[in-house]
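Side project, low priority. Logging it here so it doesn't get lost.
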Amino acid sequence: MNRRDAFTLAELIIVTIIILLLASLVTPAIHKPSPKGQISRVQNDIRSISLAMESYRIANGTYPASEMDTPLPGRTTRIEVDLRLLTTPQAYLNRVPQDVFRRLAQDPNPEFRVYAVAYETSAPTFAKYPRTAWMTWSIGLDMLDNTGGYHAIRSVLRNESAPFPCVGADKTGKFIGGTGALNGLRYDPTNGVYSYGDIYRFEGGALTQEK
């Protein structure tokens, strides 16, 4: 090969640098999740939680205990379901899933909030077994927690005609707009990708009760 037809070491280094620079520009665009991808991730995680919750109920005759009642070490006073009960000793889930939007909002506790309750007449209670209803939610693309604790689906649907902005807490915990009575609002992508509202799952008595 003629010397003039060959690349010099300097030319090879320059070409390599250019390729690396182009790759560094393209890679973030490839790996940055789209809003639809994030929603799909949340929906898949919620489906996994649902399957695990129902499998646990079939095996144990009740939905799992809250963290304040858990038989596992490190119990707390929180009334959310202890999701570790879905991973051990029987693995209904292989991990405790985290809400991608809570992570983006820098929530120190990014796990999904899952509430399991029993009903006495029409009122939900955390103090009785078997627990016959449950619900969970993601805070959604607005990254505002529009839900504060357990709500049956009818309670959430009742708020869908609420004026905007509906009640929500920003990442500092400060509530914005609306009133506490409006707490609980379902995300609807037809209102715009980044519209208010949370992404829910309701099962058992949460589908039939008012509260």
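Brief comment: DSSP finds four helices and six strands in the chain.
Revisit when time allows.
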